[in-house]
Each structure stands twice: as structure tokens, then as C-alpha cells.
Amino acid sequence: MSKKRITHRVAFGAVWIASSLCAVAPAAGWERLYVFGDSLSDSGNNGRYTWDSDRQPLYDEVLAARINQSLRPSDAGGTNYAAGSAVAVPQLNPVDNSADQVAAWLRSNGGKAEADGLYIHWIGGNDLAAAALNPLNADEIVSGSAFAAASQVRTLLAAGADTVIVPTVPNVGATPALLEAVIQIGLAPVATPALAAAFQSLSGQSTLTPESRNSAIREALYAATGELSSVEAIRQLAAAQLYQAWEALSEQAAALTDSYNQQQENGLAQLRGNIVRVDVNGLFREVLNDPARYGLTNTAGMACPPGVSAADCTSDMAGFSGSQAYLFADRLHPGPATHLLIADYIQSVLDAPAQAVALNQATLAMSRDARATLDSRLQQQRHGDNPQGSLSVYGGYAGQHYDYADNRTAGEGNATTHNLTLGVDYQLTDAWLVGALISGSDDNQHPTPRYDYKMRGWLASAYSELTLFEQGWINADVQFASVNYEDIRRSVVLGPATRTEKGETEGTQVGGRVTAGWDIPVGSRVTTGPVVQYALDYSSVNGYQEQGESSTAMRFNDQNAHSQIGTAGWRVDSRFGWINPWAEVTYNHQFGDNVWRAGGGLKSTQTSFTREVAGQDSDWMNVSVGAHVPLGETVSAFASASQTGGLSSGEQFMYNLGISAQF
Fold it and tell me: How far apart are the first and last CA of the chain?
């Protein structure tokens, strides 16, 4: 097919704008989007294959807009090399094929891929069409094309591409093209009017279930036979034969599609790299079973007139059908709403690991809560009367609330934590205290509008405090935590539909801290001085699988987080007797991981990929105030509150209160 040079200006429609505004932005940006494939992805090299294409976006243009990029065809100097009628192997189409597309792109970039780029490689539909037209060599064509497609992904990865999206090819047996082929062959003498009659019949019907879809196709074929004969018996017989031929062709095409996708999958599974396999074929099966859920009413017909390519089709042309919400624009290509659906689906898979990385935040939050209670207790102990041999028990409640303004897991969210702690300590000498505590947490985490979970866990800690030269002190504590993540809910938006994938898993955390300070007297009741701290924590979350079996159900790998925070600040303490307030300002620096990552993939695929979330904050301030209040000779209370500052990822407010008794 010779290339049609098309000069166009894409005016993004209101639907696209609304979709982009409502979509969750990816957790980490890419510099540019590169696309290789056929007419499903072509944005203007050979055409734009959906109706009203001058103002309706394709799925890859929607994805590009969501990472603040524009996608232009390579013929116009852009990064979209996809071309209508392209195949995977040059032998099937020497003019347009993805092998030449990848080679041309490599030549223009000195053989190197942009590591910060996002890549789409989607090819195979035209290869399957070639196989269907050549049944004697169909298996050979399918195998060769699947191998070539997987090899081209290997080439991209070897050149340095970090993340490559590889969708499965949707079932060509479900397209209007097969119905068209059956009519053209079976009713060849009257093919043109028969096609018009068949698709006019389809446009008058909704196909909201598989049964109604099959019924509509039966009626369409019966309508087509009216152009052949007016004799009822002949029409009925011809329609039945055509329907049987359509069923047989559909089954063969579906088998070829499954074979291609599986063979490509096997090839991709042998590769190393970030391969985002998305099961568009699985999504299409779900849409065919329940199209109304996705805002569609007709999955058998097409909006464009028979014989008119979606690249040339407009909604105001004669013969265009606007009576239904169509899955297909023409015999092979999706309509605008379907492109938006595909974009939503790909993005949901792409962003899922970046959402799951939030699980580590709950274990770190539990650690902060337990340490806040411990710090308030030790502050109380340092300024109390604690003779050698005294034993104290205490209990406290701690909580946090934090809002993610620019959260690193793809969307604004919030979290609320609840922690109860029970501890005991013993004064070994006048200068040395030892103790232990156990705490439990029951938290609700909503890190993004589309990902939330509950975390329940317990934490055990042993600690010690040593007084040095009357004015100095040093604390040390170690801890171990075990947690359960329950009711993990990931919401997936697919056009007008929302589905929820659920899961559960477990995790652990180990950590330790060393804190030291020096109290400088300022009068008889006030001391002030520096404080320093070093905290080290390792959090681990077990991988898990979501419970569903849909096209969006995913599996996630084990993930780990390493927090290593150094703190320096200044304290003011007081001893007024009836109330003893204190205040502290600290500067905190993260020496550990400031980029967290998680990996996963669809349950229906063998490949997996890893997402890195945007860099965590490395520096922030913390302001804390508190007090301890004697309630009697042996009983006293304590409380504190703290607020972070300088966190680009949101605000964090912590609070605790408790009571202790000495024996």
C-alpha cells in the first residue's frame, strides 16, 4: 500500500480533554513516547483510523497527553512510527512493517534508545489477516510473525529502552471484517447492496449480550440475502449457510489470534527487561460480554459506511450511522470511545506497581507511632524522680494524619493511623534505664484515590537510656514489626466503568535508632541543648496476587524499602512542677532510598515490569511540642504533637498521649 501523505492538525475533542483531566497521572514521568505498530496506533503516517479523526484522539495520543507529551507521526518528524497496513515481517509487506520502523528509529538515534522514554510495540493484526487468507500456511505465518514481534521488542530493550508496552492483538474474529468477508464471498453477485442491507440491519439493533449479538448477526445476514432472492425459503437457507460460514471463520480467526498472542508471549517471557504486557484481547472479550458497562451498545456493526475506511470517515458523511454507540469505526478499527477505553486500560496496568509501593508506608508509619510514644515516655522519665530499682509501666495512644499533596504513588490521597502501646521499664542504676514495649496498629491508608488498604500489625521494641555526666543522655532502641495488609483495593477506571481488584498480603520491618542530647541549664527550671539521632529501618512486603481473573487482575512482586534518616535539632525543656512543657525543632535528612520501586504484571501474562516512583523527599523539618504532667506521687501523664514542614509530598501531623505509673 502506498503511503498517503496526510497533513493534519489534531484538535483534541472535549471527550479527550475530560478523559485526560479525570485520569490519574503516572507516578513518574517519561521524557517521550515512541510507538511502533499498525493502523491501531498510526497517528498520520498512512492515516488516522477512527471516525472524525481530525478531532478524535487515538489511544496512544491519549497516553502521550497524560505524560504531558504530544505524539506526532514520524513522517512529520515525530516519534510515532506506526503505519496503517503494517505487519511484523517484511516478507508480508515490504513497504510497511514494524521491523523497518524499529530499524529506522534506531538509525535516527545512533542505535541508542532513550532510557527515559516510554515505548509501545503493537503489531500483528494484519499478519493474522494474511494468515486467514492463506490457510495452508497460516500456522507458519503466525509463528513467524509472533517470533519477529518478540524479537523487535528484544531489539528495543537491547538498545536501552527501559519500559516497553506490548499489547495483545484483539480477536480479529470479532471484527465486522469477517461478516463483510462472508457476504462478499457468499453473495458475490450482489455483494455491495447486500453489505449495505446487512449493516443497516445491524445499526438498528443493540447487542448488549453475546446472545443478542449473535441474533443481530443472524438478522443482518437474513437482510443481506434479500438482495439475492425474495423467496423466503431461499433466503432462510442462504442466511443459515452464511451464518455457519461466519461461525467457522470466527472460530478459526479466534484460534489464530490466540496462537499468535501465546507465541509472542512465550518469546517475550524469555527476555529480560521492563515489558508491560497488556491483554487488550482479554479486555475486548469482556466488552463483548457486557458492552453497556463500558458505554457501548453495538459490538457487531460499525459506524462508517461499508467500504469506507475509518481514516476517511466522518460523522457527517452519507451513510454514517449515529444510532448506536459502536465498538468499531469500520471493519477493523476501533471507534473513538474504544480508543479511550484502551488508553484507560493500558494506564491502569502501567500505574499499578507505582500504587502498590505505598504498602511500605504503613509499616514505617507504625514505627513512627510507636517511637513517638516511647520518646514522650523517655522525655518524662529523664525529668522525673527515678531511683535505682524503680519499675514503671505505661500505656499510650499515638496517631498520624497525612495528606499527599504531590504523592509519589500517582494521585492525591491521605492516611490515618491508630496505635496503642504498652511498655515497662526498669531503672538498673541511677544512670541506666532498660525497657521493652509492644504496640499494635489498626490503620486505614488511602494513598491514592484509586488505591487503598487496611493495615493491622504489632511491633515489639527493646530500649535503653543512659545518662552521661548528669547533663547528657543517649537512647538506643531496636524493633521488629509484623503486619497484615487487608482489603487492598485497586480501582480501575475503564471509560465510564469502574472495577475493583482486591488482594491481601503480609510484611515485616526491622529497625533501630540511636538518639543523644545535651541539656544546658538556663535558670533553675529550663534547660536547652542540641539533639541528634540516627534511625535505620528495613521494610519488606510480600508479593501478592489480586483475587480476580479479569483482564485487569495483577500480581505484584516482593518489595523492600530502606529508610536511613539522620536528624539534628535543638530542644527546650522545662520543670515547672505542675506541668512540664518542652519543644523541639529538627532538621531531617534521608540517607536511604529516596526512590522506591515495585514490580508486577498481569496474572494472565508471564512477563513483569518494575516502576520507580518519583524521588522521595530527602530533607525536611519537624516541629514538636509536648508536656508531662504529674497526677500524683507515682502517676503522671504525657502528650506531644508534631508537624512536618518542607515535604513536597504532603503534610504530616503526629500526636500521642499516655500515662505511666511507678512502683
Answer: 92
